[in-house]
Amino acid sequence: MIRPYDIIPFFVIIPLGGAFIISLIGKKVKWFPDVAGTFATLALMIISVLSVWIVNKYGMQVYNVGGWKIPLGIGMVLDGFTCFMLVTVNLVAFLITLFSVNYMNRYTSKWLFYALFLLMLTGMNGVIVTGDMFNLFVFLEIASVSSFALVAFGTEKYELEAAFKYAIMSSVGSAFILLGIIFLYSYTSTLNMADMAGVLMQKGQGNIILLVSVLFLMGFGLKAALVPFHAWLPDAHPSAPAPISAMLSGILIKTLGIYTLCRLFFNVLGATQPILSILMFMGILSMLAGVFLAIGQWDFKRLLAYHSISQIGYVVLGIGIGTPLGILGGLFHLFNHSIFKSLLFLNSGAIEYAIETRDLKLMGGLSEKMPITSKTSLIASLSIAGIPPFNGFWSKLIIIAACVQAEHYIYAALAIVGSILTLASFMKVQKYAFYEKVQELTAKAKEAPVFMCVSMILFAILCAFTGLLLAPTVKGLFLDLSVKALTVGTGYARLVFGAL
Amino acid sequence: MILYLLCLVLFSLGIYCTVRKRNIIKIIVGIMILEYSVNLFFALIAYKENGRAPIYSETQDILNMVDPLPHALVLTAIVIGLATTALLVAIAIKIYEKYGTFDITKIRELRG
């Protein structure tokens, strides 16, 4: 008999098995990595949509790994927030694999790329579904280590430098996270997150929780590239191959950074007002610093990387407000950002595929030469700048409305300023890359191959229509579930043990 | 108590080494010291004065056992540290091939 919670381990098994088989036979059988990678991510996308249906129908699910009941064994938890993140990650991952079928022909050892890609996906899905503190750390490191290798994938000068910087900073972040987990373990004597939340409710918030909060804020803030800890991102994200830039900016920083921060602060430690205020302040700081640094950039991908910092600022601001409306805005912006930022990075990849440069000064007139890339990037630019009716507008509107509702008028004004500056910098991109007169380099540019175009068009369609997720009935099925999972706070413990 | 303080000293040394040193290999060593100080701290959490191995037997009471869980977790953490270090060293070798130096002040292609 198939029970609803049997679906949960497959989020880890499918990509891990895929990575294993590809690394085993991918070197000999040339066509295999493409097919296996695409089908593995397609299967993941389908079961992640299925998981939304399961949560709607049967409520929260808990899977006990190896039959050991939690809190003794490792538990995997499927609740509203989990299925929301799973859909985001696996949807974007599938479309990006489709893109890399053609794009990765620029590199040798395509099979290594797919093996590492699926390993990174394993780490991310694992971080999302796990209900165990140390398990979370292990999956976090799987995702991080494979992403270091992917950033260095081209083994050119700047790629190695960026990968080294990223690896060092990320390792320091991981050490802080592990230290935080150790303190929590020694205080609560348990590793299960739900059990931990229960014990913390009984024991009360000691000084040690303050220390753990600061350690987690540093560690996960570094993974999410919030502003004081952002220095690695503008080097690492542009240096990777375009599909990986899209993965890193689109979903990796959100899964390893934002998801874990939210899960731990809201559901385990309990979100106190000082922590929320710090999150809001860091969000505003990231938002403004990111966008100011982005405007002056001439490297297309570097500009996009700075915008990732800025948009992550919006997400953290929304979540930091802490009201249901603010969390809704933050999470919806997380979903939208993963779509339009992935699309923009794929556009930059398509341009790099055609004319071998990322310098905006050398581009021009690409709208005639590459109509699909031009149109889709226009849609993505309008989305990220927050022009109605594209998805970025709705989520920014909710965040600003939540700021006003919670009486943070200055933050609301700054969020609008950030949005206007974003618009300005993307007008620059559009003008220099697509609408100036044709230069010698762009004269012989051709449109990207078929799979790349299909992937970009699908992303553009998503950009145009995901605003519909806010429609009353659909909102209750998908977004409200995840908001509910966060606003329940440390009641998470009761829910998990109730679902057993 | 003094053991925990020594652990903190090791942790600070690791951070200092990572932040201040210019040689790539020394930075990697700094990261390793950092990771190992955290692992040591984790193992120390489980330590008990006059504790015994947590093996159940008929003749002995279940008293004064050390906590076995951190030891298992530290093993995992060490293996993860090994993976990170191996990758870092591989990148360092490649950097030396491309730049001909280990000095990070001379490895500056990326800026802005």
Please describe the structure with a list of short key phrases separated by commas or semicolons.
heterodimer; A: mainly alpha; B: 112 residues; mainly alpha; Helix Hairpins; 3 helices
What does this structure look like?
Chain A has 500 residues and is an all-alpha fold. Chain A has helices at residues 10-25, 32-58, 80-103, 110-129, 133-151, 157-188, 193-203, 207-224, 233-239, 242-268, 273-295, 300-321, 324-355, 366-369, 371-385, 391-405, 409-435, 450-465, 472-477, 479-487, 492-498; strands at 61-64, 75-78. The two termini of chain A are 17 Å apart. The model of chain A has no long low-confidence stretch (mean pLDDT 91). Chain B has 112 residues and is mainly alpha-helical. Chain B has a single domain, classed as Helix Hairpins, CATH 1.10.287.3510. Chain B has helices at residues 2-20, 24-46, 69-99. In chain B, helix 1 (2-20) runs antiparallel to helix 2 (24-46). At the A-B interface, helix 5, helix 6 and helix 9 of A face helix 1, helix 2 and helix 3 of B.
- Measured between the Cα atoms of the first and last residue of chain A, the distance is 17 Å
CA distance, first residue to last residue of chain B: 46 Å
Q: Beta fraction of the residues of chain A?
A: under 5%
Query: Uncertain runs of chain B with pLDDT below 50, 5 residues or more?
Result: none
**What's the total count of β strands of chain B?**
0
Number of domains of chain A: 1
Largest interface: A-B, 36 and 34 residues
The portion of residues assigned to helices of chain B is 55-70%
What is the CATH level 1 assignment of chain B?
Mainly Alpha
